[in-house]
Design brief:
single chain, about 180 residues, alpha+beta, Jelly Rolls, nine-stranded antiparallel beta sheet, two-stranded antiparallel ribbon, 5 helices, binds fe (ii) ion
Amino acid sequence: MAYMTTTGGQFSEDTAAINSYLENIDVYLAKWPIPESPEVSALLEKPSLDEPEKEALLKGFDEAFLRLQKEMNMKSRDLIVLHPGTPGLNELLDRFAPCHTHDDEEVRYIIDGEGEFGFVFPSGEQALLKVVQGDFIRIPKNTEHWFVLTQSRRIKAIRYFSDTSGWVPKYTASKVRIS
Ligand SMILES: [Fe+2]
């Protein structure tokens, strides 16, 4: 279950309550069921996947992509698979751990494992949102945020893009104050 803590001392694990809090910065969280298929389950259990396996797993989530193509004008998707054995994992994570923004929205569907998104509000307050399997999240462009893995250091997330050109972190001056 997703849960959120804030520098103001708030805590919630209710999707509706989290959304009403994150509404201020237009971040949207939803719970989407994982397709019940033996092939999807088998692929989700594997810590690392080769390219054909990634394609096969993405195919299992075609329904979500079709919906996003229609409703959010998403053009493409890919699958990020991270685990403790991922080469260069620390360097990769270091890119997204400081506060940053993007010129395009960040849209993710967590299909295995977990991670934490942090958000900086205009007031300076910060919130940390743990996302787990089945969590779909949309972070608007230019919204200050960061991302870290949890101790398990394992996640599979589908990334959806309406335009890949904006997909570079632009670092901001804010310091992460919650973990
Ligand atoms: Fe980001």
